[in-house]
């Protein structure tokens, strides 16, 4: 326990000592490298034991040359024996230098004794070297010896791995004798890096576990301003430490001493501790191990990104951050490296001290990109201009030497080169829209007509000078209409209107007379361009469509047309049958203008009219009655007419001829219309009744040459001598031809449907017969149809008759000659067997069943109370019963049910399983009770009995007295009120006229009723002022 307390005390003292060695101003330094706002601030790695587990090398170690003996001065030093052995080959006896930093208090490093190395102490020192892995700000060096402390010792350091060893501290029992230096118990430092000698850590006592403490910065100038004193920081900085053990403490007997004495003289160190912080110059808060191929393991700082530093100790600025010199961070200023001001055009830069002192910005950019130059890549190179999308970068001017004045390569800040006349473009590499002929002299103007140019934008081919014209415009300057077009107008998207000329000519001109009428100045000469309405657009559409508004382009100056014009001059994309289907115009629109132009065509000889829309005299349309676009040809009248209708081609026929071209005889005439006039073959009158026509026939077996046709008055025959089909009469005898009346029950396409003389029908159809097919055949019935299709109840006879379709199972044996049942010919009702109904005798009447038996149907006789309806199952006769009703006729209750009604069927008896003899009750619902069980359902024991399940056991005899008293009270009540209402009771031993008795609650109600009656009688008596000893109503109630 005492050893544990001692160790705890040592640890507490070490912690306190470490804190005392820290620079005073570290308490204001944060471990975070940025503040809460993300702004860089000075930060520091944590205070650590720098030497822990680090490799220590020694110039002399015991046991490396074999097993060596050593002894101690005193046997009470904690060792089991005064003398021990050291052997590097045996782990239990080895004492290598790494034991000084392994944190194991039972391990130590030890040198050879004077007995084994004669030069120790006299000539050779023992050097202990520890590599810290990187530069540290060291606060202290602590040694705990296992042997007596050295008589003389020096601690050296290296500022970095490439520096020379420099003394850091001297230790001696006599500083002046050994090092020629004065000693002061309380030294006063004149400068931060002043070198002194210590005597207090070189005394002989204690012999073992003596300490050497070297406080690196404590008490030195600016100790409280450590991060502002460069000399103090450099003084505390070390990357390697060398401890030179020069002289041992002896008793003055080392010269010529015996071996046993020399075996007690050696150096031994139990603990080596170095306290400090990894040096990151305030730009990082962590050091990590790092190694690589062929490199020793070292520690490097993790430089915080916000500080933009780099290097093993954050000792330089990160690439691209050299706008000001690198500086270590201080509590007052984090001094982060600042990005080079290269405007994003260079990845590399360097620090220029002279530039920094002159301008405050020291970054000089290297290899400027994006076509820039300057210290900060801040301007464009010659022949380049700022990129509009990214002004810090530059784009090449790309000036065309041919189109640029004097072949200059420079352009302005917008990238515009200086162009020659008529030349355009940023690079002066093409002609302006209205110019052509790009060459060293510039470009020539096209002089395009604006009204005839496409979209009214004068522009031409840059090589030929040909202007870009509207669809129907021609000419190098787009100043005239194409052949077959007329009337150039600037607000017509197509420019000119096509010559339609009814498709008979392609040559036309503008109808100026029509223009004067449109302008309201008949007879005057009107300029077509004066009729142009600039805020409107001419849009021609087919006759069945209407023009839409013309949408403007984004410039709101020119219209947007998405299609070419047709040969008729229509713009189908701007025409719609329904104007609501026209597109929406987000940039504005122009309304349609009525086209004022009209054509005058140069027509071929066979046409006439302004648009060649008529046939000339002596010509007709081919085909006759055709469109105005159909051709016109000479009239064709076969020499029987001199004129014809120009549209229909109908000739004005003579000489008994007719037809469109006088190519047949007129009606009522026959012959050859082509034959010579007045010849025997020419047209002559028909040998037929008036109004009849005729035609010539060639029947080899008959002499008849002419046959009449289209006979009048329903007549027919070669000379119209008889009645036509479906007519009767005798035209020869003067009897007119009348239609045969066959009730529409014959096929009018057949021949011989009726007698031509009498009119009697001969080919009746659809199941009919009779002279006029007015009757139905046996086994058929009249067809009927509704007078009004919306009212199917009002029927009238229709055409024909239909088979009776009597069902043989339900029909009486009365069949026609064809084996089908005979029905009423008018109604179609078949003769049904008993109980069978329907027009076709195909089902039982409602309330009957058994159709399938073929014997007719029997009545269901369903009980009116127990059945849901009168009808029953067609095959079994089973009625549809109400709940809990059974029987084919639903005339009885299910067992254990009673009281059949139309509302609920039969009710359950609910006879008690223990109190009733059986589950069935009588017609009133009264169950048959076991002895001593009472109630409608036998659900309780009678008075003075209990336990229905056990058979109603008798109660003790005293309960009989209660029963007798209750029976007496009932008798008294009946003597006053007469027989009281009957109901179920639980007890009764007194014989009564009725087996019914009452329970206690009913008895109480009857007694209360009796009391109320007496009170009322008393009130009546008081009303008559009768004498009575009871004078107070309340008194009466209390009696």
From TrEMBL:
Residues 39-277 form the Laminin N-terminal domain. CDD domains: EGF_Lam (cd00055). It comes from the Eukaryota. Residues 1-20 form the signal peptide. Keywords: Disulfide bond, Glycoprotein, Laminin EGF-like domain, Repeat, Secreted, Signal. GO terms for biological process: animal organ morphogenesis; tissue development. Its main location: secreted. It is found in: Secreted. The keyword Secreted applies. One of its GO terms (cellular component) is extracellular region. Disulfide bonds join 368-377, 380-394, 419-428, 469-478, 653-662, 832-841, 860-872, 862-879, 881-890, 909-921, 929-938. The keyword Protein transport does not apply. Residues 340-396, 397-445, 446-498, 635-685, 804-859, 860-908, 909-954 form the Laminin EGF-like domain. InterPro entries: EGF (IPR000742), Galactose-bd-like_sf (IPR008979), Laminin/Netrin_ECM (IPR050440), Laminin_N (IPR008211), LE_dom (IPR002049), LMN_ATRN_NET-like_EGF (IPR056863). This is Laminin subunit gamma-1. It comes from Schistosoma haematobium (Blood fluke).
